Amino acid sequence: MTPRLFVVPAALNAAISVAPLVLAFWRGGWRERLVAALWVGGYLINELQRIGLGPQDRVSRGFRDVAEDVVLLAGCGFCLLRARHYWVVWATALALLSVVTDILYLARPEVTSLVHIYADDIWGYALDAAIVWGVFSARRRHAAP
Fold first, then answer.
1. Rounded distance, CA 99 to CA 94, Å?
2. Is residue 91 a contact partner of residue 127, using CB atoms and an 8 Å limit?
3. Residues 6+ apart with CB under 8 A from 95
4. What predicted TM-score, i.e. pTM, was given to this entire model?
């Protein structure tokens, strides 16, 4: 019996990635909106590359991913300044993990593309959860007297 990989359907993956952006722009504060926009922007660039727009080789993909995630990390770091909620710390940590994953993918040939993609998906889903956490904490912050 051969092992089977679990693959999240593309439509569900897109919904999971874009829903926090919609929620952040609907109910979130500026921090939630910035982090969600940077995260979804990188996701959309990856999707454009996946359908054939842009270089497909390992090095180009790795450098593009590093560039996207460094921008996300910088945005999260900016949001971390004077932040009073823990979700920003988690978002920054997850962005840092994503940058480290991308650097390891570039530096270590034994890290396969599949491992890199799954690791990025895990950090991305956790970042989605952190953004949603931030949106709900922003709602409580604005609702409090």
1. 9
2. yes
3. 69, 72, 73, 75, 76, 123, 127
4. 0.86
